[in-house]
Amino acid sequence: MIPSILPTYNRAPLSFVEGRGCWLVEADGRRFLDLGAGIAVNALGHAAPELVEVLTRQAGKLWHVSNLYQVPEQEALADKLVEETFADTVFFTNSGTEACELAVKMARKHFAEAGQPERVEIITFEGCFHGRSSAAIAASGAEKMVAGFGPLLEGFVHLPWGDHDALRAAVGERTCAIMVEPVQGEGGIRVLPDQCLKGLRDMCDEAGILLILDEVQCGVGRTGKLFAHEWAGIAPDIMMVAKGIGGGFPLGAVLATEAAASGMGAGSHGSTYGGNPLGCAVGKAVLDRVSDPAFLEDVNRRAGLLRQKLEGLVAAHPEVFEGVRGEGLMLGLKCKVAPADVVTAGYDAQVITVPAADNVVRILPPLTITEDEINEALTRLDAAATALKEAGI
Ligand SMILES: *Cc1c(COP(=O)(O)O)cnc(C)c1O
Fold first, then answer.
1. What is the CA radius of gyration of the chain?
2. DSSP state of 21
3. CA–centroid distance, residue 374 to ligand 1 (Å)
4. How far is the CA of 132 from the centre of ligand 1 (A)?
């Protein structure tokens, strides 16, 4: 019999009932150290007092009005995003995949309005993940995501990771954009080197096409900069944001330059919930905190410590791990065993990690993780690796 929840996830037998900071409490009372943060969502940890305060204050005032009216909380968050980034304008969504939908529409509309309607193709890269809507799975092209779902949205060109010749050959008269994650998340914490990101920016400028960055997972302080592309000293034309920006409240956004957004006039796009007062009030509180240079400095300091400790873990368990990769607090342990086994052993040691492709286990703690918690995390990961070895996996 089909469960009451559509069985699209293989769920672990864990029911968390409470969270505080980096800690989750299971229904049976066990405390888990959370190095997953709901897949890079709980940027400020669970039940961050300032977010609880902002959310409950807004909940007592106004939940929803519709984008038929001015929404002051939305304007405040958009103004702050414009102030802190390359962007001139913002559209709010409820998720990353909705941000992908708009990024695709915006890029195509830009060229349609500019008299180049033939420019519809968007180049993406192997291992990418942009969400689960029809456009987002078409963007990825991965067999396991698209199989059985019928005709896909046309116009995506999928290239191998790191093949510069293939990329040069693919950019042509029909290309409108290149879409890429500065750090692939689901793909296995694969960092696009700064040189490559700069190269993509140059290539887009030369060809007169748009650079769309998907910072849904790597944005909002995760890599130690407010947005990951800042490490390369470049800026995109369009950027997708979600996950961390809501700190746990469903919120996403598309940020764009005035030029890239030029085609999107009244009636060209919409969302009932997108930018609702609850989400935007929380998002503003998250952004105020994370965009503070002192906060980002802390993230980088914590990230350095965590990375150093993870290198030690790899050295201590060469049968289990191959290496550490990533940027900031978006780290991956490349495994020699099945990542799912490492994650499961972690559950037994009461530490939460997240599997990814390319044999990687993701370490994505709240950005607020303390030094003591990092030490505790390593004790637990070490216990998990030792248990795996003893079990002969
Ligand atoms: C999670 C993710 C998405 C999709 O976000 P949803 O909120 O699940 O729709 C898109 N792109 C990247 C890089 C992601 O990590």
1. 21
2. B
3. 26
4. 8
Q: For residue 360, give the H/E element and its range.
A: strand 360-363
pLDDT tens digit string along 307-352? 999 999 999 999 999 999 999 999 999 999 999 999 999 999 999 9
Q: Which of 102, 129, 249, 360 to mutate to test the pocket of ligand 1 (most atoms within 8 A of CB)?
A: 129
Q: What is the DSSP string of 175-238?
A: EEEEEE-SEETTTTSEE--HHHHHHHHHHHHHHT-EEEEE-TTTTTTTTSSSSGGGGGT---SE
Query: Of all residues in the chain, what percent carry a pLDDT higher than 90?
Result: 99
> Which residue, 341, 351, 359, 343, is CA-closest to 378?
351
Q: Which of 74, 62, 110 is nearest to 269 (CA)?
A: 110
Amino acid at the residue 264? M
Contact 158, 122 (CB under 8 A): no
What's CA 355's distance to the chain center, in Å?
Answer: 14
For residues 225-234, b (16+ Cβ closer than 10 Å) or e, as one string? bbbbbbbbeb
Q: Please give the distance, rounded to the nearest whole angstrom, from the Cα atom of residue 171 to the centre of ligand 1.
A: 25
Alpha-carbon gap, residue 222 to 228, rounded angstroms: 8
The DSSP bridge pattern shows strands 23-26 and 31-34 to be antiparallel
* The token pair that represents 101 in the structure block: 């939908």
In terms of Cα–Cα distance, which of 248, 257, 237 is closest to 122? 237
Locus of tokens 């900031």:
328
The average pLDDT across 285-296 equals 98
Domains of the chain and any CATH numbers: 16-34+293-390 (3.90.1150.10), 50-290 (3.40.640.10)
Dihedral in degrees, nearest 10, Cα atoms 131, 132, 135, 141? 90
pLDDT band at 162 (very low <50, low <70, confident <90, very high): confident
212 bridge partner residues: 179, 238
Q: Would you say 280 and 79 are in contact if contact means Cβ atoms under 8 Å apart?
A: no
Type and span of the H or E element at 355: strand 354-356
The dihedral sign for the CA sequence 173, 184, 198, 80: positive
